[in-house]
Amino acid sequence: MSTLAPYVGALAAFLASLSYVPQVRKAWPRGSTDDLSLGMLTALTLGLTLWIVYGAIKGDWVIVGSNVVGAALAGAVLGCKLRDRKCHSHKRGTMP
């Protein structure tokens, strides 16, 4: 049974990483991130980045690989949120 563990882990990592793709597609157009929490996106991106560090320390490349993809996609959504926040603050004449 333990011989299946790497395959189960890789499949889980692949599916979890892909789960961010719809959010990135939804957040990509300007002004589309109003309903997203900046705090949650920041915490998620930081958490995934720390999982990368943890996986590297443990030498578990399934953890590293899946979290690199997840952190990149979550970071892209975070970047869209920051872009939209900056755009909205300039329209109102205030800084974020």
From TrEMBL:
<protein>
    <submittedName>
        <fullName>MtN3 and saliva related transmembrane protein</fullName>
    </submittedName>
</protein>
<dbReference type="InterPro" id="IPR006603">
    <property type="entry name" value="PQ-loop_rpt"/>
</dbReference>
<keyword id="KW-1133">Transmembrane helix</keyword>
<feature type="transmembrane region" description="Helical">
    <location>
        <begin position="6"/>
        <end position="24"/>
    </location>
</feature>
<dbReference type="Pfam" id="PF04193">
    <property type="entry name" value="PQ-loop"/>
</dbReference>
<keyword id="KW-0812">Transmembrane</keyword>
<keyword id="KW-0472">Membrane</keyword>
<feature type="transmembrane region" description="Helical">
    <location>
        <begin position="36"/>
        <end position="57"/>
    </location>
</feature>
<feature type="transmembrane region" description="Helical">
    <location>
        <begin position="63"/>
        <end position="82"/>
    </location>
</feature>
